Amino acid sequence: AAGVIQSPRHLIKEKRETATLKCYPIPRHDTVYWYQQGPGQDPQFLISFYEKMQSDKGSIPDRFSAQQFSDYHSELNMSSLELGDSALYFCASLPGAGTEAFFGQGTRLTVV
Amino acid sequence: GENVEQHPSTLSVQEGDSAVIKCTYSDSASNYFPWYKQELGKRPQLIIDIRSNVGEKKDQRIAVTLNKTAKHFSLHITETQPEDSAVYFCAASRGDDKIIFGKGTRLHILP
Fold this sequence. Notes:
The complex is a heterodimer of chains A (112) and B (111).
Chain A: E1 5-7, E2 10-13, E3 19-24, E4 31-37, E5 44-50, E6 53-57, E7 64-68, E8 74-78, E9 87-94, E10 102-103, E11 107-111
Parallel strand pairs in A: 2-11
Antiparallel strand pairs in A: 1-3, 3-8, 4-5, 4-9, 5-6, 7-8, 9-10, 9-11
Chain B: E1 4-7, E2 10-14, E3 19-25, E4 32-38, E5 45-51, E6 56-59, E7 62-67, E8 72-77, E9 86-92, E10 100-101, E11 105-110
Parallel strand pairs in B: 2-11
Antiparallel strand pairs in B: 1-3, 3-8, 4-5, 4-9, 6-7, 7-8, 9-10, 9-11
């Protein structure tokens, strides 16, 4: 069965650079969540989309932005990268609110 | 907003014994409570979930209980096995809202 696809799997960037993370949800899932997970930390909610509209926003820095496109894939854009942005970024897709969240394998971002 | 507290942060259990992880939530409107298991460097995966109209749910060696009045829910793993070693996250959602995670419990199964 198709799963949530995230790309790239690994990304190394220098401070002050920009990064774009992509998420391709499971077909017919209309909800996408983005989470940031630091080493040994719980996943922190960043932002969510429902039917291509932003539905909620968490502790997402102003340097980050995201959108969901007409084909339901989502991109997380991160600018002016800082060392503290190094983390595992997960995207999850849901067939509807209040249902199981299916996580992608994550993108490991390292800022040097 | 919702706040989920999870205890303990680390739990060591002898193989074959039971493990219990407890969580509390703050938003009385939350009605969906999933539990995720995350192995090192891998994605969180749902192991069991419960909705607010149910007090208990069981799936083989895993069970979850929910006390809506106390805003408390727990994960029970019986007859623990080495492959149960992982980080477990409880979470809560209002159903039409984001899923908020607890800080996780690192479960070690001792031989």
